[in-house]
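I have been asked to look over a protein record a colleague put together. Alongside the sequence sits a line of tokens, each denoting a local backbone shape. Please read both lines and tell me whether the tokens look consistent with the sequence. Take the sequence as given and treat only the tokens as open to question. I have pasted the whole thing underneath without changing anything:
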Amino acid sequence: MHSGIKATIMAVVGASLALGLSAAPASGYSDGRQTQDQKALACNVMGASDKDGQSYIQNPLPSGSKIYGNPNSACTHSYIGPDHTADYHCSRKGGDGRRYTYTRFFNGSDVRHGWVRNSTFHDGGSEVDCAS
């Protein structure tokens, strides 16, 4: 009887591994933290086309600046420091009446994206409207 249960458990575990399933928690990390992709999904990240032809900007933000999921929400899905390079895509007016720039940040293999208030950028962010 026990050998039948053991065989069934082994078959389920084997099938799970073959399908790429894991016993890792849904949060992404064993301590409950979320991955950047999970945070982006939770914040309903809204992207934008790269309409701003400006060159990449080095160190565009003060340390600890918030990256929002979209300009109509206060949902912060990441923070960024001054050690990242920025690629502005375009800007638009947010739900709070302020302008936000959709930006791709990178530093080696660390790539993040999202909306940042224009007033946070040292240079004011993108002047190209996403609607144009």
